[in-house]
Amino acid sequence: MKDVKISVKDLNLSYGDKQALKDISLEIPAQKVTAFIGPSGCGKSTFLRVLNRMNDLINTVNLTGEVLIDGTNIYKNNIDVVNLRKRIGMIFQKSNLFPKSIYDNIIYGPKINGITSKKKLKEIAERSLKQSAIWDEVKDRLDEPALSLSGGQQQRVCIARTLAVEPEIILMDEPASALDPISTAKIEELIHELKTKYTIVIVTHNMQQAARVSDYTAFFYLGELIEYDKTSKIFTQPSKKQTEDYVTGRFG
User: Fold this and answer.
1) DSSP notation for 112-180
2) Which end of the chain has fewer surrounding CB within 10 Å, N or C?
3) Is the pTM value of this prediction over 0.90?
4) pLDDT tens digit sequence for 28-80
5) Which residue, 45, 82, 77, 65, is CA-closest to 165?
6) Does residue 10 form part of some domain?
7) Number of structural domains in the chain
8) Which residues of the chain register pLDDT less than 50?
């Protein structure tokens, strides 16, 4: 695979005595969409959080193996985790906007990172909202509370807030699972547009969504990576019977 952005080697992760991920190795390509699928509790969200060290916040976690981003092991002791998370944005299942205006939500990250010029902050806000395909809906109401928006709009503002700090990688943990079909379609359309600039990894329990938005798909089951390949192959000619049973709805 050329242009590998993230390379994971022999990764094991446990919470105390419970092993959540077992011997995971895979390579995630740059500027593509990679989907993680599998039944609830199979480890896909845990693995997603490995990629920006969010599991560090849990005391009982023990992790072995390597996670390389652009060839650098992000679990080395000298890694600046704050800087790492600036490079790797995260979109959660439920939008997690601050109780502030739409504008203040977007410029929060850039301000924390030292940008003070009002002109520059305005430019960042406009660019991010345009990239998130919501500028036309909110450009006249930037001073209104972000929480007054609909669920689908809030999720796109969350994406804009993530893009405002110019990450290289965007992790999405079931970003459309709480949304109606129209909002979901907008988020999926947005993912297609964003992959021209960003590496995107999405966890989804929706098989059709994985088939629609991703270039590569990884199927997890009980903490193991069962199969990882181009999405077209996973959904039409999987190598493993377990994968075939899952994508055809025989279990899960």
Assistant:
1) HTT---HHHHHHHHHHHHHHTT-HHHHTT-TTSBGGGS-HHHHHHHHHHHHHTT--SEEEEESTTTTS-
2) N
3) yes
4) 999 999 999 999 999 999 999 999 999 988 889 999 999 999 999 999 989 99
5) 82
6) yes
7) 1
8) none
pLDDT digits (tens, 9 = 90+) for 20-40: 999 999 999 999 999 999 999
**Dihedral of the alpha carbons of 120, 110, 124, 196, in degrees to the nearest 10:** 140
What is the C-alpha to C-alpha distance for residues 172 and 98, in angstroms, rounded to an integer?
Answer: 18
CA distances for 164 relative to 28, 224, 244, angstroms: 23, 34, 40
Residue 114 is assigned to a structural domain of this protein: no
Number of alpha carbons in the 13 Å side-chain half-sphere of residue 91? 29
Question: What does DSSP assign to residue 11?
Answer: E
Question: For residue 145, is it within any domain?
Answer: no
Structural domain harbouring 11: 4-96+168-247
Sheet holding 224-230, edge to edge: 88-91, 169-173, 199-203, 33-37, 216-221, 224-230
